[in-house]
Target: Transmenmbrane protein
Amino acid sequence: MLMRGGTSKGAYFLAEDLPADAGARDDLLLRVMGSPDPRQIDGLGGAHPLTSKVAVVSVSADPEADVGYLFLQVGVDTAQVTDRQNCGNLLAGVGPFAVERGLVAPGDAETSVRIRMLNTGDLAVATFPTPGGRVDYTGSAEISGVPGTAAPVVIEFPPGGSPLLPTGLARDVVAGTPVTCVDNGMPTVLIAASSLNVKGYEDPKDLEEDVALADRLRAIRLEAGRLMGLGDVDGTTVPKLSLLAPPLHGGAIMTRTFIPVRCHTSIGVLGAASVAAGLRVEGGVGQDLARLPAHGDRLRIEHPTGFLDLETSIEHGAAGAVPVARRTAVVRTARKIFDGTVFPRSAATAPTPARHS
Model:
Protein backbone atom coordinates (compact mmCIF):
# COMPACT_ATOMS: atom_id res chain seq x y z
CA MET A 1 0.00 0.00 0.00
CA LEU A 2 1.40 3.40 -0.94
CA MET A 3 0.48 6.01 1.67
CA ARG A 4 1.26 9.57 2.53
CA GLY A 5 2.17 9.86 6.17
CA GLY A 6 2.60 13.42 7.42
CA THR A 7 4.88 15.21 4.96
CA SER A 8 6.44 12.00 3.63
CA LYS A 9 5.30 9.22 1.35
CA GLY A 10 6.22 5.54 1.45
CA ALA A 11 5.39 1.93 0.72
CA TYR A 12 3.75 0.03 3.59
CA PHE A 13 4.19 -3.74 3.76
CA LEU A 14 3.12 -6.53 6.07
CA ALA A 15 6.28 -8.11 7.46
CA GLU A 16 5.02 -11.54 6.41
CA ASP A 17 4.95 -10.42 2.77
CA LEU A 18 8.68 -9.60 2.73
CA PRO A 19 11.70 -11.92 2.96
CA ALA A 20 12.65 -12.75 6.55
CA ASP A 21 16.34 -12.36 5.73
CA ALA A 22 17.32 -8.68 6.05
CA GLY A 23 19.70 -8.77 3.09
CA ALA A 24 17.13 -10.32 0.77
CA ARG A 25 14.48 -7.89 2.04
CA ASP A 26 16.69 -4.86 1.41
CA ASP A 27 17.60 -6.09 -2.06
CA LEU A 28 13.89 -6.41 -2.88
CA LEU A 29 13.04 -2.96 -1.49
CA LEU A 30 15.79 -1.28 -3.53
CA ARG A 31 14.28 -2.81 -6.64
CA VAL A 32 10.76 -1.85 -5.58
CA MET A 33 11.76 1.78 -5.00
CA GLY A 34 13.96 2.04 -8.11
CA SER A 35 17.26 2.65 -6.32
CA PRO A 36 20.02 3.51 -6.91
CA ASP A 37 18.99 6.16 -9.40
CA PRO A 38 18.66 9.94 -8.84
CA ARG A 39 15.22 9.85 -10.48
CA GLN A 40 14.13 6.44 -9.18
CA ILE A 41 12.52 6.22 -12.58
CA ASP A 42 12.12 2.43 -12.46
CA GLY A 43 10.32 2.16 -9.13
CA LEU A 44 7.94 3.71 -6.61
CA GLY A 45 10.41 6.22 -5.14
CA GLY A 46 9.93 9.93 -5.73
CA ALA A 47 13.60 10.96 -6.16
CA HIS A 48 13.88 12.43 -2.66
CA PRO A 49 14.60 10.95 0.80
CA LEU A 50 11.11 12.02 1.93
CA THR A 51 9.50 9.84 -0.75
CA SER A 52 11.90 6.89 -0.61
CA LYS A 53 10.67 5.31 2.59
CA VAL A 54 9.26 1.95 3.69
CA ALA A 55 7.14 0.91 6.67
CA VAL A 56 7.11 -2.77 7.66
CA VAL A 57 4.19 -3.59 9.97
CA SER A 58 3.51 -6.75 11.97
CA VAL A 59 1.33 -8.00 14.82
CA SER A 60 3.24 -7.34 18.03
CA ALA A 61 4.07 -10.02 20.58
CA ASP A 62 4.58 -7.20 23.09
CA PRO A 63 1.59 -6.96 25.49
CA GLU A 64 2.02 -3.16 25.56
CA ALA A 65 1.64 -2.80 21.77
CA ASP A 66 -0.80 -3.88 19.08
CA VAL A 67 1.62 -3.73 16.16
CA GLY A 68 5.32 -3.41 15.48
CA TYR A 69 6.57 -0.81 13.00
CA LEU A 70 9.99 -1.05 11.39
CA PHE A 71 11.04 1.99 9.37
CA LEU A 72 13.51 1.59 6.53
CA GLN A 73 15.08 4.55 4.73
CA VAL A 74 15.91 3.54 1.17
CA GLY A 75 18.72 5.43 -0.53
CA VAL A 76 17.78 7.37 -3.64
CA ASP A 77 20.99 7.32 -5.65
CA THR A 78 22.79 4.78 -3.46
CA ALA A 79 22.15 1.06 -3.01
CA GLN A 80 21.62 1.54 0.71
CA VAL A 81 18.88 0.62 3.16
CA THR A 82 19.13 1.74 6.77
CA ASP A 83 17.11 1.07 9.92
CA ARG A 84 19.13 3.45 12.11
CA GLN A 85 16.22 5.83 12.76
CA ASN A 86 12.49 6.13 13.32
CA CYS A 87 10.20 8.08 10.99
CA GLY A 88 7.42 10.02 12.67
CA ASN A 89 5.88 10.94 9.35
CA LEU A 90 5.21 7.40 8.12
CA LEU A 91 4.15 6.60 11.69
CA ALA A 92 0.96 8.56 11.00
CA GLY A 93 -0.11 5.91 8.47
CA VAL A 94 0.75 2.83 10.53
CA GLY A 95 -2.50 2.75 12.54
CA PRO A 96 -4.77 3.12 9.51
CA PHE A 97 -2.71 0.54 7.61
CA ALA A 98 -3.00 -1.91 10.51
CA VAL A 99 -6.79 -1.57 10.46
CA GLU A 100 -6.92 -1.82 6.65
CA ARG A 101 -4.93 -5.08 6.79
CA GLY A 102 -6.96 -6.56 9.65
CA LEU A 103 -4.19 -6.50 12.24
CA VAL A 104 -6.30 -4.37 14.60
CA ALA A 105 -10.08 -4.44 15.02
CA PRO A 106 -11.56 -0.96 14.45
CA GLY A 107 -13.85 0.86 16.86
CA ASP A 108 -17.25 2.22 15.84
CA ALA A 109 -16.21 5.87 15.97
CA GLU A 110 -12.45 6.00 16.43
CA THR A 111 -9.60 3.58 16.93
CA SER A 112 -6.43 3.82 18.98
CA VAL A 113 -3.49 1.66 17.92
CA ARG A 114 -0.49 1.09 20.19
CA ILE A 115 2.61 1.02 18.02
CA ARG A 116 6.02 -0.27 19.03
CA MET A 117 8.65 1.50 16.91
CA LEU A 118 11.07 -1.34 16.37
CA ASN A 119 13.98 0.85 15.31
CA THR A 120 14.36 2.25 18.81
CA GLY A 121 11.89 0.38 21.00
CA ASP A 122 9.83 3.50 21.68
CA LEU A 123 6.04 3.37 21.91
CA ALA A 124 3.43 5.60 20.25
CA VAL A 125 -0.36 5.61 20.36
CA ALA A 126 -2.19 6.76 17.21
CA THR A 127 -5.89 7.66 17.37
CA PHE A 128 -7.92 8.28 14.20
CA PRO A 129 -11.55 8.20 13.01
CA THR A 130 -13.13 4.87 12.01
CA PRO A 131 -16.87 5.61 11.64
CA GLY A 132 -18.80 2.42 11.07
CA GLY A 133 -15.63 0.41 11.57
CA ARG A 134 -13.82 1.74 8.49
CA VAL A 135 -10.87 4.10 8.28
CA ASP A 136 -12.00 7.57 7.17
CA TYR A 137 -9.21 9.60 5.58
CA THR A 138 -11.33 12.70 5.00
CA GLY A 139 -11.48 15.53 7.48
CA SER A 140 -10.62 19.13 8.26
CA ALA A 141 -7.16 18.75 9.76
CA GLU A 142 -4.50 20.71 7.89
CA ILE A 143 -0.74 20.36 8.15
CA SER A 144 1.89 22.51 6.49
CA GLY A 145 3.60 20.94 3.51
CA VAL A 146 0.52 18.95 2.44
CA PRO A 147 -2.19 20.39 0.17
CA GLY A 148 -5.79 20.22 1.31
CA THR A 149 -7.16 18.66 4.49
CA ALA A 150 -7.59 15.16 5.87
CA ALA A 151 -8.71 13.28 8.98
CA PRO A 152 -6.60 13.98 12.06
CA VAL A 153 -4.28 11.30 13.39
CA VAL A 154 -3.41 12.20 16.99
CA ILE A 155 -0.10 10.63 17.97
CA GLU A 156 1.01 10.59 21.58
CA PHE A 157 4.48 9.50 22.61
CA PRO A 158 4.84 8.16 26.15
CA PRO A 159 8.25 8.92 27.67
CA GLY A 160 10.88 6.70 26.06
CA GLY A 161 13.85 4.96 27.58
CA SER A 162 16.53 7.07 25.88
CA PRO A 163 18.03 9.97 27.85
CA LEU A 164 16.76 13.35 26.66
CA LEU A 165 20.32 14.68 26.64
CA PRO A 166 22.49 11.82 25.34
CA THR A 167 25.73 13.58 26.32
CA GLY A 168 24.39 14.52 29.76
CA LEU A 169 24.95 18.22 29.03
CA ALA A 170 22.63 21.03 27.97
CA ARG A 171 25.35 22.40 25.72
CA ASP A 172 28.40 20.87 24.05
CA VAL A 173 31.02 22.33 21.77
CA VAL A 174 31.27 20.08 18.73
CA ALA A 175 33.71 20.77 15.89
CA GLY A 176 34.16 24.23 17.40
CA THR A 177 30.41 24.97 17.40
CA PRO A 178 28.03 25.24 20.41
CA VAL A 179 25.25 22.64 20.10
CA THR A 180 22.58 20.91 22.14
CA CYS A 181 22.33 17.16 21.53
CA VAL A 182 18.81 15.93 22.26
CA ASP A 183 16.82 12.74 21.73
CA ASN A 184 13.06 12.92 22.24
CA GLY A 185 12.32 10.19 19.72
CA MET A 186 14.90 11.27 17.13
CA PRO A 187 18.61 11.92 17.80
CA THR A 188 18.93 15.59 16.86
CA VAL A 189 21.66 18.21 17.10
CA LEU A 190 20.41 21.76 17.67
CA ILE A 191 22.62 24.52 16.28
CA ALA A 192 22.09 28.29 16.21
CA ALA A 193 22.12 29.19 12.51
CA SER A 194 24.13 32.32 13.29
CA SER A 195 27.00 30.20 14.64
CA LEU A 196 27.38 28.77 11.13
CA ASN A 197 27.29 32.19 9.45
CA VAL A 198 23.82 31.71 7.96
CA LYS A 199 20.54 33.34 8.92
CA GLY A 200 18.35 30.25 9.20
CA TYR A 201 15.68 31.68 6.89
CA GLU A 202 17.32 30.70 3.58
CA ASP A 203 15.66 28.53 0.96
CA PRO A 204 16.60 24.86 1.52
CA LYS A 205 18.14 24.65 -1.95
CA ASP A 206 20.44 27.59 -1.23
CA LEU A 207 21.61 25.95 1.99
CA GLU A 208 22.25 22.66 0.22
CA GLU A 209 24.45 24.41 -2.34
CA ASP A 210 26.59 26.12 0.34
CA VAL A 211 29.75 23.99 0.18
CA ALA A 212 31.38 25.56 3.24
CA LEU A 213 28.20 24.97 5.28
CA ALA A 214 28.03 21.35 4.12
CA ASP A 215 31.60 20.74 5.27
CA ARG A 216 30.92 22.19 8.71
CA LEU A 217 27.67 20.27 9.10
CA ARG A 218 29.37 17.01 8.19
CA ALA A 219 32.11 17.59 10.77
CA ILE A 220 29.52 18.43 13.43
CA ARG A 221 27.39 15.39 12.63
CA LEU A 222 30.27 12.92 12.73
CA GLU A 223 31.58 14.21 16.05
CA ALA A 224 28.13 14.59 17.60
CA GLY A 225 27.19 11.07 16.55
CA ARG A 226 30.06 9.67 18.58
CA LEU A 227 29.25 11.89 21.57
CA MET A 228 25.62 10.75 21.46
CA GLY A 229 26.62 7.10 21.58
CA LEU A 230 25.67 6.42 17.95
CA GLY A 231 29.16 5.41 16.87
CA ASP A 232 30.37 6.15 13.35
CA VAL A 233 27.42 7.87 11.64
CA ASP A 234 29.14 8.36 8.29
CA GLY A 235 26.73 7.06 5.65
CA THR A 236 23.70 7.11 7.98
CA THR A 237 20.87 9.62 8.35
CA VAL A 238 21.13 10.19 12.12
CA PRO A 239 21.61 12.34 14.01
CA LYS A 240 19.52 14.99 12.31
CA LEU A 241 20.89 18.54 12.35
CA SER A 242 18.45 21.40 12.98
CA LEU A 243 19.55 25.00 12.49
CA LEU A 244 17.64 27.38 14.77
CA ALA A 245 16.69 31.03 14.30
CA PRO A 246 14.15 33.33 15.98
CA PRO A 247 10.61 32.73 14.67
CA LEU A 248 9.13 34.89 11.93
CA HIS A 249 5.43 33.97 12.07
CA GLY A 250 4.41 33.86 15.71
CA GLY A 251 5.81 30.40 16.47
CA ALA A 252 8.42 29.30 18.98
CA ILE A 253 11.40 28.84 16.64
CA MET A 254 12.38 28.75 12.96
CA THR A 255 14.14 25.60 11.76
CA ARG A 256 16.17 24.26 8.85
CA THR A 257 16.74 20.50 9.22
CA PHE A 258 19.26 18.36 7.34
CA ILE A 259 18.75 14.61 6.60
CA PRO A 260 21.78 14.32 6.51
CA VAL A 261 22.88 16.64 3.67
CA ARG A 262 19.50 17.39 2.06
CA CYS A 263 17.67 20.27 3.71
CA HIS A 264 14.14 19.16 4.66
CA THR A 265 11.42 21.33 3.08
CA SER A 266 9.46 20.94 6.33
CA ILE A 267 10.35 18.97 9.48
CA GLY A 268 9.67 15.42 10.62
CA VAL A 269 7.42 14.68 13.58
CA LEU A 270 10.07 13.09 15.77
CA GLY A 271 12.66 15.65 14.76
CA ALA A 272 10.22 18.40 15.75
CA ALA A 273 9.53 16.62 19.04
CA SER A 274 13.25 16.65 19.79
CA VAL A 275 13.57 20.32 18.80
CA ALA A 276 10.60 21.26 21.01
CA ALA A 277 11.98 19.43 24.02
CA GLY A 278 15.43 20.89 23.39
CA LEU A 279 14.04 24.42 23.42
CA ARG A 280 12.84 23.85 26.99
CA VAL A 281 16.27 22.74 28.22
CA GLU A 282 17.78 25.42 30.44
CA GLY A 283 21.13 26.49 29.06
CA GLY A 284 20.53 24.93 25.64
CA VAL A 285 21.48 26.71 22.41
CA GLY A 286 17.82 27.46 21.67
CA GLN A 287 17.12 29.24 24.94
CA ASP A 288 17.95 32.74 23.68
CA LEU A 289 16.41 32.19 20.23
CA ALA A 290 13.05 30.65 21.10
CA ARG A 291 9.85 32.50 21.94
CA LEU A 292 8.24 30.08 24.37
CA PRO A 293 4.64 30.58 25.50
CA ALA A 294 4.10 31.75 29.06
CA HIS A 295 1.59 28.97 29.70
CA GLY A 296 0.80 25.53 28.33
CA ASP A 297 2.76 22.81 26.55
CA ARG A 298 1.91 23.65 22.94
CA LEU A 299 4.70 24.91 20.69
CA ARG A 300 4.69 25.88 17.03
CA ILE A 301 7.82 24.84 15.17
CA GLU A 302 8.29 26.93 12.02
CA HIS A 303 9.97 25.40 8.96
CA PRO A 304 10.53 26.34 5.28
CA THR A 305 6.97 25.55 4.16
CA GLY A 306 4.93 26.40 7.26
CA PHE A 307 4.72 25.03 10.78
CA LEU A 308 4.12 22.00 12.96
CA ASP A 309 2.19 22.26 16.22
CA LEU A 310 2.92 19.86 19.06
CA GLU A 311 2.71 19.61 22.80
CA THR A 312 5.73 18.73 24.87
CA SER A 313 6.82 19.00 28.47
CA ILE A 314 10.01 18.15 30.33
CA GLU A 315 10.93 17.88 33.99
CA HIS A 316 14.14 19.48 35.18
CA GLY A 317 14.15 17.98 38.68
CA ALA A 318 16.73 18.99 41.26
CA ALA A 319 19.49 21.46 40.47
CA GLY A 320 22.10 19.84 38.27
CA ALA A 321 19.85 16.90 37.33
CA VAL A 322 19.51 15.95 33.68
CA PRO A 323 15.99 16.89 32.46
CA VAL A 324 13.53 14.16 31.51
CA ALA A 325 10.87 14.25 28.78
CA ARG A 326 7.36 13.80 30.15
CA ARG A 327 4.83 14.19 27.33
CA THR A 328 4.79 14.70 23.60
CA ALA A 329 1.73 14.69 21.33
CA VAL A 330 1.18 15.85 17.76
CA VAL A 331 -1.68 16.02 15.27
CA ARG A 332 -0.81 14.66 11.82
CA THR A 333 -2.70 13.31 8.83
CA ALA A 334 -2.29 10.34 6.50
CA ARG A 335 -3.92 9.14 3.30
CA LYS A 336 -4.09 5.90 1.38
CA ILE A 337 -2.91 6.59 -2.18
CA PHE A 338 -3.17 3.14 -3.71
CA ASP A 339 -3.43 -0.47 -2.66
CA GLY A 340 -2.19 -3.09 -5.08
CA THR A 341 0.70 -5.09 -6.49
CA VAL A 342 4.16 -3.71 -7.17
CA PHE A 343 6.42 -5.37 -9.73
CA PRO A 344 10.10 -4.91 -8.78
CA ARG A 345 12.75 -4.83 -11.43
CA SER A 346 14.76 -7.99 -12.02
CA ALA A 347 17.33 -8.89 -9.38
CA ALA A 348 19.84 -9.56 -12.16
CA THR A 349 20.02 -5.83 -12.95
CA ALA A 350 20.22 -4.51 -9.38
CA PRO A 351 23.40 -3.52 -7.46
CA THR A 352 24.19 -5.23 -4.16
CA PRO A 353 22.66 -3.27 -1.25
CA ALA A 354 24.76 -1.78 1.53
CA ARG A 355 23.23 -2.19 5.00
CA HIS A 356 23.64 0.17 7.96
CA SER A 357 22.14 -1.29 11.13
Notes: The first helix runs from residue 22 to 33. The longest strand covers residues 324-338. Helices lie at 22-33, 88-100, 204-208, 211-227, 269-279. Residues 303 and 340 are 34 Å apart (CA to CA).
